[in-house]
Every structure is written in C-alpha cells, then in structure tokens.
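To the structural biology subgroup,

Please find below the input and predicted structure for YceI family protein, which we are adding to the shared reference set this quarter. The sequence is reproduced verbatim from the submission form. If anyone notices a discrepancy with their own records, reply to this email rather than editing the shared folder directly, so we keep one authoritative version.
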Amino acid sequence: MKKEIKTQESNVIWKGKKLAGSHSGTINFKEGYFNMENNEPTGGEFIMDMTSIKVTDLSGKNKQQLEDHLKNEDFFGVDKYPTAKLVVRNVVKQENGTYGVSGDLSIKEKTNPITFEQQINEDSALAKVVIDRSKFDVRYGSGSFFSNLGDNTIHDNFELDVNLKF
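Predicted structure (tokenized):
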C-alpha cells in the first residue's frame, strides 16, 4: 500500500553555511510516498521541485539574487535539472517511532547513497538530513575545490529538515 504525502503541506527547510554566516529557505515536494506493509514503512520515493527553492532569511533584491544564484548552473541548474529524487531502499524500525532510513539521492543526475533517522507518525514524518553537496557536482564556493575563497567559502555539507504530512 502507498502512503502518499500531501505536497501542499509538506516541505524541506534547507540551511547552508559559509564562514561568514548562513542562509536558509524552503523547497517544495512535487510528489512522494512511502510503501507500507502492516502499517510500517518499507520503502518509497520522494521528488523535490528544485524550481521552487526559496530563500527565507533575506528580503528584496538580496533574496531574489540568492534565489536566482541557487537556481543557476553554479548550484542546482534547475532549468536542466528541475527535480531531485530520493528513492528509499530500506527502512529499519528502531524505537519510539524512529526509523533508520537508507536510499539513493539524485541531484543533478548524480546519485549517491544516503542514510538518516526519521520520526514517522500516523499523519506526519520528520527527518534531519545532512548532505555533502560536492558529491552532487554542486561545487560553487567549496573550499574542497577552490582555494583563496577566504570568508566566502561555503561549507560542503548543508542541512535539510524534512517535514512530511500524510
């Protein structure tokens, strides 16, 4: 049985850090579901709409500039890669509604394995996921690939707070 998410109520809150501070925002889901057996998740698939990426910690011209930059080829290239996808391959029940989740995350047609813990309830699920953007060819401002960036260096890891509603 598929347990579909309510895309209008579900989202991803992202946070990226650099030496001189951080930025945060949201990404919407295009679709997503868990496969369920005996009321337990066993797998699933979630597609994020990368064209929906928003910046929430800035306003006006600065907000628009950063959103445009995140959408261009320096970061996520949303014209060419409008979606990112997580295919959940394995879910292991732990305790207190917590599950260990493993799967394959695809961003910019690069796929890498990912693991995280997720709280799953009757009508919602929450997870904090850390992603190394350099594994997905998102290298702009990365100290791993460019030197002499100083306080403009952007950390490779970014955080995603995933909020799903069923």
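Summary notes: The first helix runs from residue 60 to 71. The mean pLDDT is 91.

Regards,
Lab coordination
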